[in-house]
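Margin note: ligand = 6-O-phosphono-beta-D-fructofuranose.
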Amino acid sequence: MSTKCIAVLTSGGDAPGMNAAVRAVVRSALSFGMRVYGVKRGYNGLLHGDIEEMNMRSVSDIMQHGGTALFTARSPEFNTPEGVQKAAEMCRSKGIDGVVVIGGDGSFRGARDLTDAGVKCIGVPGTIDNDIACTDYTIGYDTALNTAMEMIDRIRDTTESHDRCSVVEVMGRRCGDIALHTGIATGAIATLVPEVSYDFQTDIVDRMKAAQATGKKHFIVVVAEGVGHTQELTERIQKETGIESRATILGHVQRGGSPTLRDRVVASRMGYRAVQLLDEGKGNRVVALKGENIVDFDITEALNMPRTFDEELYRISARLSI
Ligand code: F6P
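Resulting structure:
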């Protein structure tokens, strides 16, 4: 049976492009003849009834902004069987029979539990980390990459002026995609990711010395957050190479800013597909981008898929950085 009244929420860490997804969900739902509610602050809002009905104008002028107009939160209370039941009851009391959840893996586990409790949920991948196995792309990733690249370009200017080494930490707790891609795009001498172990001497010091012997005087090392110890690593590089070194942790600057065109378009397509699935009476699905196609998977299957890291690109990156 097709779903008649749905809600949309954003959950977990925010990501640029989430607003385009919310807009797409609201406008698609209205165009399918559904009623649609916006839930504030993720599953917390669902538990506490922080929910308001949306119309065509509720989502005007949000697409170009970073962050999420629905706000977001991580909700320990929802992560209990009682919390899930309470949220399901809140949905029933408002007549909501489907929910679009925009977030990461943790948010999808909540969407699966809520579906089990009788409210059909569809997950839309939104996180800058690009760490969701079932999809080639997560909303926010492109904006974060471009922000990180621009910041590292700026760091390179001063690094070059001072003949220094800059060690730049980018986000990605379990996933090195931001590091790998920004490392290539900024010509890093070394890129460290959680998926691949490294040897300090051969992968950093020897590479820097070999490049120095060809006349290179300044260096960028990109480190994914999940590798950790960025300050210590920087001090060790200075000690072992004699090259003055500085650490920069880019942090949450990568999560903000106006979303790129790619993020807005992918988010719009994913949001539309999520509503289409609910209209077809489906639940417990996650929307994904495979190549250039929007597809969908069972949430449980999606959560069990192994994530792959592009080792070939990692090898290419090492060959080019000299
Ligand atoms: O999942 C996105 C992300 O930005 C990660 O890269 C980072 O590890 C984490 O969120 C930071 O979370 P918080 O904003 O809660 O500190």
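The mean pLDDT is 97.
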